[in-house]
Amino acid sequence: MATQKKGAKTKPAKRAATKSSPRSSGSAARGDKSVEAFRDALERSVTLSRDRVQEVVDDAVGRGRMTRGDAEAMVSRLVSRSRQQTDELIAELEKLVDQARKQVETRVAPARKRAEKTAGRAAKRVRTSAEPALVEADRLRRRAGVGGAEPIVGYDALNATQVKSRLKDLKAAELRKVRTQEKRGKARKGILDDIERRLEKK
C-alpha cells in the first residue's frame, strides 16, 4: 500500500460552489422579518378606549385610592402613550405596504416591458402591411370626390412618413390645405419642406 510522504501537503477537498441567493430572496426575507416585527408589535400592544380608562380611574377615585388630579394625569399619560403607539404601528404598516408595492412592481415591470415591446412591434407590422392599401384607398376617394374636405383622411393620426407618402398624388390646392393643417398642428419641418418643393413643381 502506498504511504504518503512525511511533510507532503494534502490538497484540500473542493467545496461545492454555492450560488449567492438572488435579490428577490433577500427582499422576501426582509419582508418576512418586517411582517413578523409588526405582528410582535401588535401582540405587545393593548387597546383600550379612553372611556374604559376613564371609567377605571373614576372608580379608583370613588374608592379613595387616588385623587382626581392624579387620575386625570394618569388618563392623559395613557392616552398620549396610546396615540404614540398607534402612530408607530400605522407608520410600520405603511412601510410594509410600500415595500410590498415595490416588490410587486419589480416583479411585474419586466413582463410589462416585454408585453409593450411585443405589442409595439405587432402594431408596427400591421401599419406597415396596411399602408399601401390605405394610400391607394385615399387616392381613389379623392378621385371619386368622396369624403370630407380634408385631402388626407385621418391626417392627425399619421406619422411623417405616412403623410409624405400621400403628398405625391395631391393637387396644388390640396397641398396648400395640408400645409395649413400641418402648420396649425404639429408643424413638422420635413413635411412642410416637402410640400413647398412639390408646390414649386406644380
Give your account of this protein's structure.
With 202 residues, the protein is an all-alpha fold. The protein folds into two domains: 25-133; 148-202, no CATH class. The protein contains six helices and no strands. The chain has helices spanning 23-44, 50-62, 68-144, 160-167, 172-184, 189-201. Helix 2 packs antiparallel against helix 3 (68-144) and helix 5 (172-184) runs antiparallel to helix 6. The protein is rod-shaped and about 110 Å long.
Features:
202 residues; 2 domains; 0% strand; 6 helices; disordered N terminus; mainly alpha
DSSP helix fraction: over 70%
Principal-axes shape call? rod-shaped
Strand content: under 5%
- What is the string of helix and strand elements? HHHHHH
The count of DSSP E runs of length 2 or more, i.e. the number of strands, is 0
Topology:
Layout: H1 23-44, H2 50-62, H3 68-144, H4 160-167, H5 172-184, H6 189-201
Helix pairs in contact: 1-3, 2-3, 4-6, 5-6
In short:
The chain is mainly α and 202 residues long.
